[in-house]
Each structure stands twice: as C-alpha cells, then as structure tokens.
C-alpha cells in the first residue's frame, strides 16, 4: 500500500465531490432564479 498513491486518489475524489457540489449549487441557483 503506497500512501502517496492513496493520497492522490483521495485528493482526486475530493476534487470530483467539490466539482459536483459546485455544479449542484449552480443548478439550484439557476432554478431559483428562473422561479422568481
């Protein structure tokens, strides 16, 4: 088990989660803007 590879995979998955969250926030904001 290589801790460097493990850390890299963890940071990549964190980036993906952050990206998905950001997209979700933008989508929610867009829906709210359309409703008003």
What are its keywords?
single chain; 36 residues; rod-shaped
Task: Explain this structure.
- The mean pLDDT is 91.
- This protein is rod-shaped.
- The protein has one helix and no strands.
- It has one helix at 3-35.
- It is 92% helix and 0% strand.
- It is mostly helical and 36 residues long.
In short:
This protein has one helix at 3-35. It has 36 residues and is an all-alpha fold.
Beta-strand proportion? under 5%
Count of alpha and pi helical runs? 1
Please tell me how large the radius of gyration is: 16 Å
Structural class: mainly alpha
Q: Summarize the biggest pleated sheet.
A: none
Helix content: over 70%
- Uncertain segments are none
Annotation, overall tally of beta strands:
0
Question: Distance between the terminal alpha carbons, to the nearest Å?
Answer: 53 Å
Mean pLDDT, as a whole number?
A: 91
General form? rod-shaped
Strand/helix succession: H
Topology, element by element:
Elements: H1 3-35
């Amino acid at each position: 088990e290589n801790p460097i590879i493990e850390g890299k995979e963890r940071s990549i998955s964190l980036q993906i989660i952050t990206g998905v969250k950001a997209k979700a926030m933008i989508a929610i904001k867009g829906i709210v803007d359309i409703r008003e």
